[in-house]
Each structure stands twice: as C-alpha cells, then as structure tokens.
C-alpha cells in the first residue's frame, strides 16, 4: 500500500509553494521521495521551503515567479526543465482574492489580477508542462480550486468565476492531455491559512456551526492526503475529477 503513494524519482512543481497549503504539499511530496520546485513571488520565502526540502534529503529549486504573467510562467518552465529535465507533478496552487465594498468598486486592475493568478497562469503552465508530459512519460496536474467556484456567493465574484473556470479547464485538459497525463482539481473549502487573517473569525465560527459539516475551517496540512493521492499512482484511474476537500461545506 505504501508504494501507491511513492514519488521516488519524481519531480514536483508547486506554485504558491512558499507558505500555507503550498508549503505543506511541497514538503509532503519531498517526504514521499520527490524533488521539488518551489515557486512564488518572493524568492527568500521559496528558499526557506527549499531548505526544508533539502533537509529531507531531496533536491529543491526555489524560483521567484508571478504566475499571473505568462512571461513568468514561460521562464519558470524553462528553469524547471533546465534543472531537472522533466516535471512529473504540477500543482497550480497559487491564488488570491481581493476585498471590495461593492461590485462597481472592483477596478479593471483588481479583476485582471484575480483572474490572471487563479485562471490564466494555471492555463499557461498546464499547457506548457502538460504537453511535455504527454510527449514523455506522462504525469499529473493538480489544480487547487475552491468551493467558491461551485457555490457563488457575494464578495468573491471575480475569484469564484476564475475558480469555476479552473474547474472547467480541469475537465477539458484531462481530455486534451490524456491518456498519459491525468488532470484533477481539489475544490478546497475554507482553510485557516494566511488568507483567513482578514476574516472576522467569530463570525466565521458561528457560520461554520451550520454551514460546514465538520463545523470548522481546515488546517493547511489537511490538504496533503488529497494531493498525495492525485499526484501518485494511487489515483491511476482518476482524471477530470473535482475532489471536494471542504469539511462538508454547503
């Protein structure tokens, strides 16, 4: 059973890999034998996680990249293949939302920033890396989506729309890149990562009692089981799926 989740000899690229769920996934992949490319906008933060990966006996490559920009995506892919010659697992984890008081106050720059990071970047990376995977030994692409993509709600319209698009891409890319590449999405519920620091936690806890079956938010490490499943041979017949890891969110 342990061999099902073995990633020995694999190379994983995790965007938004310097903190929160991205960091947890990067370290879990390393613990299961993978070398890891850690990408985020701040190089020093990537280097910190890369050092943690190396302490586990694996190779690591920290890269500063804003994956909302196609030029940065292209440079990231070039650097990854120059260093390792392949990418076996791509995790499109980088994402963000913005706060606004009313819909008409969402500026074009705000809208573009949210859609670029949550949708445009994953498209570009999946296209570039996925095609190389398909031409080679295959691989796994994991998109980190959100329940906001399936449960539209106020105050997250651009974010929810982008995540809905990411779920759509997941299914489309699964067919476009199959049969050698598997493409799946983790639809994450509310996780208590850095983003939750802006929440009214008392209001959240009250809402969680009725809106979430487990009556709480997730901890960053609780994404790891799903990520390991989708990255490894354990999910060899799973593609085009959207897996909810949301505590049972309505």
From TrEMBL:
Q: Does the record's keyword annotation contain Oxidoreductase?
A: yes
Name the SMART domains for this protein.
PKS_KR (SM00822)
For this UniProt entry, the molecular function terms from Gene Ontology, in alphabetical order, are: oxidoreductase activity
**Keywords from the UniProt entry:** Oxidoreductase
User: Taxonomically, which superkingdom?
Assistant: Bacteria
Q: InterPro entries from the entry?
A: KR_dom, NAD(P)-bd_dom_sf, Sc_DH/Rdtase_CS, SDR_fam
* Domain Ketoreductase: start-end pairs: 10-195
List the CDD domains.
SDR_c (cd05233)
- The reply on keyword Oxidoreductase is yes
UniProt cross-references to PANTHER family, sorted A to Z: OXIDOREDUCTASE, SHORT-CHAIN DEHYDROGENASE/REDUCTASE FAMILY (AFU_ORTHOLOGUE AFUA_5G02870), SHORT-CHAIN DEHYDROGENASE_REDUCTASE FAMILY PROTEIN
NCBIfam families membership: PRK07231.1
Family in the record:
Belongs to the short-chain dehydrogenases/reductases (SDR) family.
**Protein name, per record:** NAD(P)-dependent dehydrogenase (Short-subunit alcohol dehydrogenase family)
